[in-house]
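ARCHIVE RECORD
Type: protein–small molecule complex
Small molecule: adenosine-5'-diphosphate
Source of inputs: curated submission
Record status: active
Notes field left blank by submitter.
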Amino acid sequence: MSEPSEPNEAASRAEPSPDRRRWSRRWGLWALLVALLLGLLSTLVWLAGRYESSQVQSRLEQDAVQTTTDIRAALTRNVQGIQALQASSPDPAAWRVPASALLHEHREMLRLEWRDAALAPVSYAQTPYRPSVFERLGRASAQTDVSFACAAARRFSGPAYSSSYFLPQADGLGLEVLDMCLPVLAGGQLTGYLLATYSLQEILSELVGRQLARGHGLAFTEADGTRLAMYGNPARGNRGYVAQQLLDLPGNTMVLRMERQLGTPALFPNLLTALVAAMSLALVAVLALLGRDMRRRLKVEHDLADALAFRKAMEDSLVTGMRARDLQGRVTYVNPAFCQMVGLEAGELLKHGTPPPYWPPEQVEEYEQRQARRLAVGATLPREGFESVFMRRDGSRFPVLIIEAPLINAVGKQTGWMTAILDVSEQRRVEELSRASQDRLQATARLATVGEMASLLSHELNQPLAAISSYATGSLNLLQSAVAGEPQPPDNQDLQLAMRRIAEQAERAGKVIKSVHDFVRRRDQVREPVTPRALLDAVLPLVSLQARKLGVRVLIQVDESCAPVLCDRTMVEQVLLNLARNGMQAMQSPDKSRRADRLLILRVRPAASNAHSRWVEFAVIDHGEGISEDVARQLFTPFFTTKAEGMGLGLSLCRTVIEQHGGFLGFAAGQPQGTIFTFTLPAAVTAVAVAEVSA
Ligand code: ADP
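STRUCTURE (tokenized, with ligand):
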């Protein structure tokens, strides 16, 4: 078993099934989509971050420019203040007062000095905010820087700044300072210098706008980045923004470094990036949801395909033809069984309009009317269906049983009709066969009865024939005596009487033969209204024949109010005859003394108490031995008999006949003994009425 499947497996390994290929393509597309989206989102986040940091950077740079401008402007204002000292009071002692005031006003200035043209000190003033900054090293330590600055100042004829230098302090700390030298000119002649010592740190803290300084780290650095003085919160490590700006002062250029810390968390430096990131996350979440939804859809799709395949297989395996029609009667669906039944392709059936190709042309008009009627009836079609005739492609007709039901869509609206169609030709054939064999059986049974009759007939005919023969002999004697020349002429009257008797007896014999002949020959199957009396009259000669032989008295009781019954009279006569014969045979007890009890009653009355009943009840009542339970169980079984010469077909045929008429055949024990066989037949009036109703 496993061997032949191997090449298949190999083939399926080499070439994936279309399902698998579709599956992997679908998932491939999804993976690509997810990857693209992730790429796009991370680029977006990165770009947003980049944009944000460039914004911050440029703002920082602007701030740095602003700061240097501020510092430069403040220093220039200070220069003017210092110049003003000289203009008003050239007296060294008096000079100190406004100089101290100026120092009081400007914290960034540590010391103001007045020097002569040879840079020898004339006067000086100290800042009130801290002890003398030159205490440790002495003012002379900075003499070189001062003379450089003043030389430059002389050259510029304006303020010049020295390079900065470090001043250790008594408290162990130190500070970076810078001198500004301003030449004092009187009438175009240099008369001395004014020196201002600035603390770099205080310049940052005092001269930079508070607003600007907030949140920034400010520092003066050397070209290599060494910090000289700083203020604020410098950035730690390299997580921050840095902007550098040159502070260009006459005689000195310093680098102002402005730093700004990165916000926390560093991954999302600001709202925009956070927003983009959040949106990306949402997008990814939506994507995940979509993916899950798709997975579910795929599963449902798969289940649906399974269910559909299952239904299709079921549909294809049906032997019942299925057909759907829309409300206009057009065929919208057919199953393979139906196609096979009518020998047409599904496509042909669907394309074909009305009338459909399987309607026999001669019936089209009738079927159209029927269809219109049925469609108009609405949803109240009977479930049991109806019979019809369809035509195959080759033109042959076949009987079908059609069961229709409304076709309801998902929203409960009727969109057409669903029909189940059964090909009943085989069933009809079997029925026909069984009917034919029934007929044959009945014919056989009747022939058997005829055989029986023949013996009775010979017995019965004996009497008239004997009578005829004796009358004939008598007549001959009369005639012979006349011929022999008897003196008296033959008695004409006697002769006439004898001849009449002969004729009567011959007629009687003829009747007997005719009744048998009638019974055997009459075979017209029609159902006709017959009065119960006529039925009894027809069987009576035959019943009487047997009754006489068996010594049975026959009593007829007919309720004259009974309506005629609708029946096949030959068959019903046979039933009556069978039952009567069975009854008479049952009374053949060997006990001769009970001869008086041998009474057979044939009774007819309406089945219910009222005279207008739809049914007429026939009863054959005997006073025989009755039916034991054992016999009763098999009574109607064909070929069951307790008689040596019996065939056992009588009762089973009787029941078939009565049931074919729609009636019922039953039996009950008689009182005090015997059996009552009863059967019912439809009264002709009601039968006509019923036929009308059903039409
Ligand atoms: P057959 O008369 O050829 O035996 P039937 O089918 O008419 O076949 O009857 C079957 C059997 O039913 C009879 O053999 C008999 O035993 C029993 N039977 C029928 N009618 C009566 C009756 N009226 N009384 C008693 N037994 C009966």
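CURATOR ANNOTATION: The first helix runs from residue 2 to 14.
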